[in-house]
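User: Before I run my own analysis I want an independent prediction to cross-check against. Here's the chain; please return only the structure tokens and, at the end, one sentence I can use as a sanity check.
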Amino acid sequence: MARFLREHGWVIARQGKGSHEVWRDPAGSVIVLPRHGEVSAGLVRQIITKVDGKVPSGWR
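Assistant: Structure tokens:
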């Protein structure tokens, strides 16, 4: 997910509580991303929707 965010212009704004990172885009939107290995499908869908504005076709 971090690579996807970087490719879309997002940068790490700061380290959040625990094992989380706070990401910010140039417009000021914020996403909190856990730093552990796996991210749930629901969180992936939320992040992609927030960044791209749409979910890839074929996803429910």
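Sanity check: The chain has one domain: 2-52.
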